[in-house]
């Protein structure tokens, strides 16, 4: 099969080995997949991953032990878990001690003709969601995770830091939850998109951090993001950290202690809520698509997605 593989360097392999069948898993034919910041960070060394990249996808079921999935178009949760460890048994299976993660940790991803996942990871996609929207189910679920982790009662001062792919999803989810959310970013065209969605926005250059925000969600994908978030949040406020980064940066933790700030890491989220939001047109994802490219152009597509200001680049497998 064709695949985009990272193995110290990124290469397109026209004759990659098919994914090895595992017990009870489902074989999928990928229709489209989205490039995300995590894929780019992997090419910079994040997670030391080697293999087929890609974890945001829509696919057709080819072969499955689950009757309900036959003939379905699906999206897939990315954590492949054991179901037996202490964390799985306590309902924290996304943190399974024995997990592998699609295209990120010990499991080949979706930038390929075929991918395999356990049936339990898969969600059938209703007809009301088209393929372009469906590739956003995984990152949109990650945006919904913020609501699971932080109480937002509609009266809070909430800032989303970063106007990239994930920031623009988080901002829409928080707005829909009734938050007076504000986006801070560097790109006028993306801030204009926020205005169109009736979400307040400010250019980063205009910001003087005042330790006055109840919640700051860092979606910058940069080491500087957390530093700024800590300066923006009020004493006893919460910083939600969404960025995944290959390299750390020394951070002065004194303000965290002095202001008694809570820092919450945030990763994967609820697929069901993302599917419902897309199905009910509550979130605009189509405006985030920058370009569609063929899988063969994968290297070029990753280069494009790396450029500042470029939103979602989609790889098509047809
Ligand atoms: Zn992603
Ligand atoms: Zn487990």
Report on this model:
The chain is of the alpha/beta class and 318 residues long. The protein is built from ten helices and 19 strands. It has helices at 37-42, 86-89, 131-134, 137-149, 165-176, 188-196, 223-232, 254-258, 271-279, 298-306; strands at residues 3-6, 10-13, 25-34, 51-52, 56-63, 73-76, 79-80, 100-102, 106-107, 114-118, 122-124, 158-161, 181-185, 200-203, 213-218, 233-241, 262-265, 289-294, 312-316. Strands 3, 5, 6, 10, 11, 18 and 19 form a seven-stranded mixed beta sheet that branches. Helix 10 links the parallel strand 18 and strand 19 (312-316). Helix 4 crosses helix 5 (165-176) and helix 4 packs across helix 9 (271-279). It is globular and about 55 Å long. The chain starts with a strand and ends with a strand. 45% of the residues are buried. The mean pLDDT is 95. The site of one zinc ion (ZN) has 5 residues, from loops.
Give the DSSP E fraction (strand runs of 2 or more residues). Answer: 25-35%
Pairing-aware structural class of the strands and helices? Answer: alpha/beta
How can the largest sheet be summarized?
7 strands, mixed
**Uncertain spans:** none
Mean pLDDT: 95
Count of discrete alpha- or pi-helical segments spanning 4 or more residues = 10
Q: State the oligomer.
A: single chain
């Amino acid at each position: 099969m064709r695949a985009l593989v990272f193995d110290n360097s990124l290469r397109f392999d026209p004759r990659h080995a098919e994914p090895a069948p595992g017990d009870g898993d489902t074989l999928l034919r990928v229709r489209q997949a989205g490039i995300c910041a995590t894929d780019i960070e992997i090419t910079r060394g994040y997670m030391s991953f080697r293999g087929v990249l890609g974890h945001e996808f829509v696919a057709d079921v080819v072969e499955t032990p689950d009757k309900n999935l036959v003939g379905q178009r699906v999206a897939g949760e990315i954590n492949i878990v054991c179901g037996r460890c202490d964390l799985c048994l306590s309902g924290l299976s996304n943190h399974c001690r024995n997990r592998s993660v699609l295209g990120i940790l010990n499991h080949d991803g979706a930038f390929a003709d075929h991918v395999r996942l356990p049936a339990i990871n898969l969600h059938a996609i209703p007809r009301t969601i088209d393929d372009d929207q469906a590739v956003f189910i995984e990152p949109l679920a990650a945006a919904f995770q913020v609501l699971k982790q932080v109480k937002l009662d509609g009266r809070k001062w909430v800032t989303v830091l970063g106007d990239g792919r994930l920031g623009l999803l988080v901002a829409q989810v928080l707005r829909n939850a009734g938050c007076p959310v504000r986006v801070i970013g560097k790109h006028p065209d993306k801030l204009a998109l926020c205005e169109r969605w009736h979400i307040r926005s400010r250019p980063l250059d205009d910001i003087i951090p005042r330790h006055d925000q109840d919640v700051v969600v860092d979606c910058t994908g940069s080491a500087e993001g957390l530093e700024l978030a800590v300066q923006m949040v009020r004493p006893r406020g919460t910083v939600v950290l969404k960025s995944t980064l290959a390299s750390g940066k020394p951070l002065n933790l004194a303000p965290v202690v002095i202001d008694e700030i809570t820092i919450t890491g945030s990763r994967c989220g609820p697929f069901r809520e993302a599917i419902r939001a897309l199905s009910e047109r509550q979130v605009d994802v189509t405006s985030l698509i920058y370009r569609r490219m063929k899988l063969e152009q994968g290297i070029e597509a990753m280069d494009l997605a790396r450029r500042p200001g470029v939103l979602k680049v989609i790889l098509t497998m047809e």
